[in-house]
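Human:
I keep going back and forth on a fold encoding question. Comparing notes only helps if you start from a blank page. Show me how you would write down a chain together with its backbone fold. Write it directly below this note and I will take it from there.

Assistant:
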Amino acid sequence: MIELKNVYLGYNKEYYALFDINLKIENGERIALIGEEGSGKTALLRLIAGLDKQQKGEAYIDNKPICKVDFANDVSLGYISSKAVFFENKSVYKNLAWVLKIRGVDKKLWDKQIMQVLDEFGIIPLKDARVGTLCRSDRRLVQIARLALRPLDILLCDDIEMNADRKTFDKLNDALKKLIEKDKKDKIVILTCNSAKGCKELVNKKIKIVSGSLENEEVSK
């Protein structure tokens, strides 16, 4: 469970990116956080991921203050950001191998696990490509495959590709759906987008955010 109580987050003294946020998300809920650019969507994800800390209020994951959560051991959180960090000059395969290495997975299992996720998300042809040469949508698919190498308790995805062409959008949505449904079925999912269009099959609740404040919640039918 994620719970935010009267949370304020600001990057300077004059402006709050998040303003008096009160939100509770139960295990198994899938949320679409909908708002325009600059509305506070990314700030909210970064707070939950422990990358930024609120100036006021309380923020918890499973009743533990987020600032005290050990994301290596307490909770498995995956964050698909709009600016993913990769080894740009290394291949997709080697980037995925690095993830298994730092997780302490037996090297004998690396090839099987990597090829399995590459196949699952339809990106085997990208195996030997340098990540730095990939287009935006292929980089997003590699991000998704990278997270599929471990079970997730929480999945955060910033910026659903609303401006992509229909074929690319459908491909990314299908990959996200596979990741959401993989392993733990009760994972918390929070996706951000600028409109509700296209994400209705991925979520069961929509929340609108405007100028750093939550405006309403809508349960999907």
User: Anything to note?
Assistant: The CA atoms of residues 39 and 211 lie 5 Å apart. The mean pLDDT is 92. Helices lie at 41-48, 92-102, 110-120, 136-147, 166-181. The first strand starts at residue 2 and ends at 12.
